[in-house]
Amino acid sequence: QAQVVESGGGLVQPGGSLRLSCAASGFSLKYYAIAWFRQAPGKEREGISCLTRGDISTYFVGSVKDRFTMSRDNANNTGYLQMNSVKPEDTAVYYCAIHSTCPIIATIKNWGPGAQVTVSS
Fold first, then answer.
1. Closest among 85, 44, 89 to 68, alpha carbons compared
2. Is the pLDDT of residue 105 over 80?
3. Which pLDDT value is given to residue 110?
4. Rounded Cα gap, residues 32 and 102, in angstroms
5. What is the dihedral of CA 96, 97, 100, 105, to 10 degrees?
């Protein structure tokens, strides 16, 4: 099955930007959809975005729409989440997931370690 490792998290000030990476192993990422989830302190994990197989469509929840973008580098087998104009409420551990189609949380059985993003001044 898919194995992923998230990286690129850290501390960023409100209004700033950072890019998270989702490195996949054991399969070719280009044949799969990439989804991003996050879990804020004291809250349940939630889905925030998805890039479909073949980059046909991109989906974002309203809370991040127009601020976050997704991309992939098939040569490096890595997906990316570009976070712009971040807000304190974006503080969370971010997870990526790989699936044949854009998945819901219940579909994902093997989560990566996640990347901590802290938005604070």
1. 85
2. yes
3. 86
4. 9
5. -120
- Could you tell me which residues come within 8 angstroms of residue 37 by beta carbon, excluding any fewer than 6 positions away? 45, 46, 47, 48, 94, 95, 96, 97, 105, 108
Alpha-helix residue ranges (DSSP H) falling in 24-99: none
In angstroms, rounded to a whole number, what is the distance separating the alpha carbons of residues 37 and 96? 6
Higher pLDDT among residues 110 and 36, named by residue: 36
Distances in whole angstroms, Cα of residue 31 to Cα of each of 1, 24, 34: 13, 12, 10
Name 83's bridge partners: 18, 68
Query: Does residue 73 surpass a pLDDT of 80?
Result: yes
pLDDT in tens, 26-40: 889 989 999 999 999
Q: How far apart are CA 91 and CA 4, in angstroms?
A: 21
Q: How crowded is residue 61: how many other Cβ atoms within 10 Å of its Cβ?
A: 14
Contact call for residues 11 and 103 (beta carbons, < 8 A): no
